[in-house]
Specification:
It comes from Isoptericola luteus. With 224 residues, the protein is an alpha+beta fold. The chain contains 5 helices and 8 strands, in the order αααββααββββββ. The protein is elongated and about 95 Å long.
Length: 224
């Protein structure tokens, strides 16, 4: 037992020396680095064997190693000296995180919605596409709103329903998407939360209304 513990102490001293050398080195050739790694692994194995002999504990599955010399199948670094530090890294050894992303289309869609709300209370006028005409029809509201943001859409609902990309359901829709109803005879702008803004029919004004999937012909996303 005494001899084993003495051997453990010697090995620990050797490994500490190797760590100091590795920490102070600023440049190294590939051959030197490989030799250092092999020597470190050999000493680590000897350390584990000696400690097993001294304590009677099977340490076959425990790999003690210097930082930067992982054993096969080991993905965390376990520094010698009894303190284990774990860190998940990329193949280059540098920790990474998912880059923050912004959705310009969603932000623009919200701007579209805010513009459309400026026309709440505007009378329905068939064929109307500007306030100079006294009011707006459904596609006129869409056309005018988008044009104020530099987006030129077709004038009538049946053509607007062919623009952009198809969205499968209201659950996937976002503010600014076009809501097409009655087979292409009516259009509004989605606000979110199951609501759209539209100019419904003669005698009505631009308003916000609740909608459900069963009342939607298609949903079109203009802003990617």
């Amino acid at each position: 037992m005494t001899e084993a513990l003495t051997r453990v102490g010697e090995i620990r001293t050797q490994i500490a020396t190797l760590q100091d050398v590795a920490a102070g080195r600023t440049t190294a050739t590939a051959g030197t680095a490989t030799a250092t790694s092999a020597a470190t692994q050999q000493n680590a194995t000897q350390f584990a064997s000696a400690l097993a002999a001294a304590t009677g504990t099977d340490l076959t599955n425990l790999t003690a190693q210097l930082p930067g010399t992982p054993a096969p199948g080991v993905t965390t670094t376990q520094p010698l000296g009894g303190v284990v530090g774990a860190a998940t890294t990329t193949g280059t050894g540098t920790a990474t995180s998912a880059p923050a992303s912004t959705d310009a289309g969603a932000a623009k869609g919200q701007q579209i919605v805010e513009t459309a709300k400026e026309y709440l209370g505007t009378p329905y006028v068939w064929g109307g596409e500007s306030l100079a005409e006294g009011g707006l029809d459904c596609s006129g509201l869409v056309h005018l709103t988008y044009s104020r943001h530099g987006i030129d859409l077709p004038r009538v609902a049946r053509d607007q329903m062919r623009e952009g990309t198809t969205i499968g359901s209201l659950a996937e829709a976002r503010a600014g998407d076009l809501i097409i109803q009655r087979g292409g005879k009516h259009v509004g702008i989605y606000l979110g939360d199951g609501q759209m803004i539209h100019s419904p029919r003669p005698g009505k004004t631009v308003e916000i209304a609740s909608i459900t999937d069963d009342r939607v012909t298609t949903i079109r996303r203009i802003l990617d």
